[in-house]
Amino acid sequence: MKPTLVILAAGMASRYGSMKQVEGFGPGGETIMDYSIFDAIRSGFGKVVFIIRREFADNFRNIFEPKLKGRIETAYVFQELDSYTGGFAIPADRTKPWGTAHAVLCAREAVGEPFAVINADDFYGHNAFKNAATFLNVGCDKENFAIIGYDLTTTLSEHGTVNRGICTVDHDGNLESVTERINISKKGDKVLAEDGLEPAELSPNTRVSMNFWCFAPSYFEHSQNMFAEFLATRGNEPKSEFFIPIVVDSFIHKGGKVAVIPTNSTWFGVTYKEDAPFVQESLNKLIKEGEYPVRLWE
Questions:
Q1: Are 114 and 140 in contact (CB under 8 A)?
Q2: Cα 143 vs. chain centroid, distance in angstroms?
Q3: Mean pLDDT per 10-residue segment, the chain (298 residues)
Q4: Which of 210, 163, 199 minimizes the C-alpha distance to 182?
Q5: Which domain holds residue 98?
Q6: Element (H, E) at 232
Q7: How far apart (Å, rounded) are the C-alpha atoms in residues 294 and 71?
Q8: Domain count for the chain
Q9: Overall pTM surpassing 0.85 (yes/no)
């Protein structure tokens, strides 16, 4: 059974200022998602599941179905406030979605095989998908998940600070924890996190999470149980969010293992509008090097 790719595409990206998930960056108007799906197909994935808002459904289908038909199976699921809430009374002033772990939970009915989770607006690179597929095919089970770990310095922006999940890794290469650090930027030859936490200076070789996870289907039951606990304790907070690392942290504390899989792929993304030209330049460079065809789907 081929693994599935789950793409988190329900957010509107307030810092970027537009719906960057469907903005064209490639020479033929390809989105960043196009490159991720292309890499997933050539790495052996058999299905892609888009997690979107219901009002974006026609837009997404019109963009992706003509390209992907006959190449990979597709499914569309919707992240809605009342999904998987078990009758919880949603506060009247709650408008913000419940977060990334809830988004993944919304895909439960569409996924029955080992699967990877990625962000719609991040470019991860072919090697990352290849390594993820290998793990999902041979190493993934109900007691073993994984995360693709990137070098911190390859994930910074020249146009402002970034927030990153810093991975603490044990001597066996397994994840111990992910700590969210904010306001990270390069100052001279140092990488600093100006968030009041220690250490303020971060090692350039630090592994970071770019939200590229590998899970077995058992993840869903664990996540749904955690979400019920989250709603009971924090559901009435208007801006509380249920993030994937919350589920992963619980999984680790219950004896599960999460391998940190390194990649030599270069990550890039569009956190700020000013990042867009760099993304286009980076894609053009990869095309020139022969990593991708000029027109991805022709």
A1: yes
A2: 21
A3: 94 48 82 96 98 86 92 94 87 86 96 96 96 97 97 85 91 92 90 90 90 97 94 90 92 96 90 83 96 94
A4: 163
A5: 4-142+209-242+264-288
A6: helix 219-234
A7: 18
A8: 1
A9: yes
